[in-house]
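Quick bug: DUF4817 domain-containing protein output formatted oddly.
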Amino acid sequence: MSGKSLHAVNTAFKHEFPDDAVPARQTIYRLSSKFEETGSVDDSPRSGRPQSVTTDDNTDLVSENFRRNPHASQRRAARELNISRSSLQRIMKELKLKPYKPRLVQALNEDDPDRRLEFCEWFLDAADEDPTLLDQILWSDEATFYLNGHVNRHNCVYWSDTNPHYVIEQELNAPGVTVWGGIWSHGVVGPYFFESTVTSDNYLQMLRNSIIPVVEEHQNFETMIWQQDGAPPHYGQRVREYLDDTFAQWIGRRGTIEWPARSPDLTPCDFSLWGIIKDHVYAGKPRDVEHLKLLIEQEFTSFNGDIELCKSICRSVANRCQMCVSTEGAQFEHLL
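Here's what came back:
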């Protein structure tokens, strides 16, 4: 086949399959030679013991298939290529194709990386000066639990011989039972259930009546640093004034230390606590909202029985801040 003929084949293929990648040069030459010799692109019958379907042609076909459609399941690929699942898996192993599951990452606005970088640099410098900082911060947040489960990435894969760092961006909001919780190296605090939409008023009421009276009893309260994100209920003037009066330092929107917006990958509640609790709670198959609340309470109790886990989670923030700095404030969880 001449270069001119190869160009014609590529042009025809693009016209017929505009959304697919053009086959490799060697694949086109091999099929062309086979057709000229036999009048067909099918393998000729062979005498004796049948050979394995793991031929060069099938290897090329499998490689091309997953290059054009890396999201395809093995079942679908085996059906479309007319080879058995076991043969397909053997070929994929030879090609070193591995399934990579996507990570859910928070979408960032244009100015967010600079704010994230500023916070992480402060955190790392402060932790170098005082390593106990990692154990002083009480990280807090609300989460939504609902009866019909959570995002399932089990059947969402990307087949490739190298990790494509494939991600899904998703805004982190959903309807359901709203729960407040906190975690620091000395355990977890909560849960506290909001019976209505979270506002500055009922958030402040929770702090005054339910949360601060509990944490004030801890021997390390005087050095505790409160952390919360910049959600509107947290930003109310009365809330900020109360935190100013209660803590020498607190992290948040307009706090003594500014918290970067849209950074769930930097707070233990989001990158660890809620995920662990939701996995266990949903495994319990809650029957109704009250049963859901009971399962959540049980998980918080379980956490307080494993203080070393709480320490490990909170101290891992330093590594995450280092990753954030290395990406200049961009998303980084898909690189972990």
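Actually, after a second look the formatting is fine. The two ends are 47 Å apart (CA to CA). Closing.
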